[in-house]
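PROTOCOL LOG
Step 1. Enter all chains and additional molecules of the complex.
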Amino acid sequence: MSVEMSELKDSVRRVMVDSGLDASADSIWSQIVDLGWLMVSVPEELGGLGAGVEGACAMHLELGRGLCKAPYMPAMLTLDAICQSELASKEEWLERIFGGEFISVALAQSDVRNFENGLGGTLSGVLSADSASHLLVWTNDLEHVVLVKMDQPGIELVAKDTWDETRKLFDVQISDLALNNQVSLATGPVAAKLVQRLQGQADLALAADALGGASALLEQTVEHLQTRVQFKRPLAMFQALKHRCADMKANIVAAQAMLFDSISTMQEGALVAKANKMLSCDVFADTAEDCLQLHGGIGMADEHPCHLFLKRSLLNVHLSGKSDSYASEIGSRLISLAK
Amino acid sequence: MSQTNNTESLRKEVRNWLEANVPKDWRTAMTNVEQDKFVQLQRDWFVKLSKAGYATPHWPEGWHGGGRSLAEQKVIFEEVARADAPRLIMYFVALYHAACTLFECGSEQQREKYLDGILNGKIWCQGFSEPNAGSDLASLRTKAERKGDHYVINGQKIWSTMAQYADYCLLLARSDNSGPPQAGLTYLLLDMKAPGVSVRPISQITGDDEFAEIFFDDVKVPVENLVGEEGKGWAVAQATLASERGLTLVELTQRMRYALPMLVKSMEENGLKEDPVLIRDLGRLSVDVDAACALADQYLLKRISGEEQVGDASIVKLYYAKVLRAFSSLGMKIGGLNGQYNAGFMCGATQETGNWTLDFMNSYNWSIAGGSNEVQRNIISERMLGMPREPKSWQLGE
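Step 2. Run joint prediction.
Step 3. Record the structure below.
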């Protein structure tokens, strides 16, 4: 990682700690915009920092530590797609986004078809759709990737009451949207490649977010065990509890080693991203499950942040692809390779 | 760029050499054979590898095979794993523990005297653990008493790998009882052929007798065999234990990765290649194996660049032990009832033989030896996470 990037990472951590877990999505978003965090992965020739996937993941990790409520992740994904697209007016769009305009994308299901009378279908897992100017949409046949303006007839938002309080999810219903009236990012084979890249980037982003959350939560849990005294000694002195913390630490460090190894060796391919998403999100969910237990009663209190980590970890597991299907895909691939 | 070219040409060179020289079908040759045949195969393979310079890439410059860059060392270990060459389990202590201890803490004379011997096939064992000093190593009681120009050794060691074949022993003994337990330990190089040394192999749950007990009855060790200072053996022992991490774990994790197709083969043999649950298990395991590989690589890089922190090694060992257990467990699951039949004992078995119940039992080597999982968890929680130690003293009847 470059010196510049690692300094940025440190400053992100400071900003997130200073803001605190209670900071609103809007206030975090304006920091993100003002401090130029959206420029991290944009190539230098397009006015960004050129820190690539590694830079993006470092950012997601830090923002995951602070349970970032602002939709940084979908913003980064759509920015990357614009940079990779066939769009003629890239610079203009980048300028708008660097200035705070937000474009969202579905992080769960996407079922949009190109019917005779226009685009129609449903998207789910769309983060902060209510504050987005546009939505990145692709057709099921992967022939078209477009930016769809939110404020137009044929777009309907359904807010979901998500358990994870740190993120706002929406379903978006699309009907009879004329394809020609939307901003085209790519068509044909380029579109298919763009979607595949976007899914890989989403998997890596979620993995990094999960590892940030898991690390921060483990630190807070150890701190809790250090201060809470029962049986005339700090809970942190009990080996039964220490060993659980040690296992969690080992799992987090291993998943992180794999994530940054995958990125630095530039291993292309969706399976590597899927492997990371599965491992890291499972590690976060397992860590959060046990950390709540280690907190005891206070972990069940709404005022304590422990549950915020747990709920975010549970949602992460269900965004993008699911662990079980990823595991099956990776297993099948091994079997076909062994022939 | 040129460095990548260099390592790539080294890779080609090593790969070609291994293709021509790895004993053909050694797995079959080593199944159900007498111990002396096994010893012969290990010795032959070691000498071959050592002559080619591939057994000691981790040794410093100036020593045969040594002075390789980290990247080159990694290439050699990856290729050895890829070629499925026999693991040099009889020489492990000599190549790592003995050599690294001598490089780090030994005297010039000791290095001159013993290192060439290692290259020529001298076998070393480690005399640390005792019946009452396992995880609590510092409580060991084997006595080293200074008498003139000798130390006189009395006591017993246990779990010494390959001690029955060893020429020399790395001995940790107590020379002083007065201070705290760590303070009175002395590190010595002991000749296993010396009068008063007796060895009793321990028959293991696998049917093998890889470990032995060593008994010392007034064994004389010349003073020049002292490593470091008298009473400062604990620090030397830490150097010994640290040497088995790093590269070793790079090799072992890579071997595990190359062994994944064995699980697929086993699924095929048992008619389970389409089993969706096993396919999923296999996918999950392979991701854990990848993580273990990445972790070992990262640790090695940290070690070489001097960024290693207390507890890093414990994490690698703990994680590898976990994944290794999971690997053989999945093997047993795939093997079903067939996996419960002994497919023949393989001498000098690597961790992954496809004899799944054997592999499962052998996986305990990594969760118990060299600091058990529990000790590693103490190190991680206390020294990395800063959690307090448990109160020290405890009296019977309290």
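Step 4. Note key features.
The first strand of chain A starts at residue 103 and ends at 105.
The mean pLDDT of chain A is 95.
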